[in-house]
Design a protein that fits this description.
Blueprint (H helix, E strand, L loop, with lengths): L3 H14 L13 H14 L5 H18 L5 E3 L8 E3 L4 E3 L6 E3 L1 H11 L4 H12 L5 H28 L6 H20 L2
Antiparallel strand pairs: 1-4, 2-3
Helix pairs in contact: 2-3, 2-6, 3-6, 4-6, 6-7
Length: 191
């Protein structure tokens, strides 16, 4: 919890400052396109999760509708705790493999879900980031993007089960993330 203000300031700086230094074409990381692409990959590769792909794509499409309208920033899009380094003087954000223009709510939702933030911490996160009180519309759009973040991580793991050579239990990671996604989706749909 003591690190959260520093982390949020770094994320906000990424969103605000990185585009000032970019030249030439820049990527777009549209999470809903990524979800649709992962679903197609699961079906093309005859994944054991292929039957679930259509359902997850439909959910992703519904989340896309619920999450708008969209502001666009330069997002990191992979805010796992391992992508933050503290050298004792400065906090660094590393691993920009998924970086690109996206909604700030995707990074904020990913930060919250990947790091087990409490509801109170999430409200603080949103109020501090947007420098305004949180209203119901923002909470609804944020909830949709938080679910989309968990869905993307789940489907990334499903694809990684088929494509990765890394010695890692992707099946267990998929199951864990699918459970977390379903719980978040239930919370979102019941609010």
């Amino acid at each position: 919890p003591a690190m959260l203000p520093r982390v949020l300031e770094l994320v906000k700086s990424c969103h605000r400052d990185v585009p000032r230094h970019l030249r030439g074409p820049a990527l777009v990381f549209w999470v809903f396109h990524v979800i649709r692409d992962y679903a197609a990959t699961l079906q093309d590769k005859n994944s054991p999760h292929a039957a679930l792909a259509a359902e997850l794509t439909g959910i992703g499409n519904s989340l896309e509708q619920a999450a708008g309208p969209f502001d666009i920033v330069f997002g990191h899009n992979d805010l796992l705790c391992g992508n933050f380094l503290d050298d004792g003087n400065r906090l660094w954000l590393i691993d920009y493999d998924y970086a690109g223009f996206n909604s700030p709510l995707f990074d904020l939702g990913g930060l919250a879900s990947n790091n087990g933030l409490t509801q109170q911490q999430e409200l603080w996160l949103l109020e501090t980031y947007f420098e305004a009180p949180v209203n119901d519309d923002l909470l609804h759009r944020y909830g949709a993007m938080k679910c989309a973040s968990l869905l993307r991580e789940t489907m990334w793991s499903m694809v990684s089960e088929l494509t990765s050579d890394i010695d890692f239990d992707y099946a267990a990671y998929t199951a864990s993330n699918l459970t977390r996604f379903r719980a978040a989706l239930d919370d979102f749909q019941n609010t």
